[in-house]
Amino acid sequence: MRGKFITLEGVDGAGKSTHVEWLADQLRSRGHKVFVTREPGGTELAESLRSLMLHQPMSALGETLLAFAAREDHVRRYIAPALEAGTWVVCDRFTDSTYAYQGGGKGIDAQAIQTLSQMTHPTVNPDRTLIFDCPWEVSQARIRSGRRVLDRFEKEGRDFFERVRGAYLQAAQHEPARIRVLDATQPVEAIRAMLIQELAAL
Question: What's the predicted TM-score (pTM) here?
Answer without folding.
Answer: 0.95
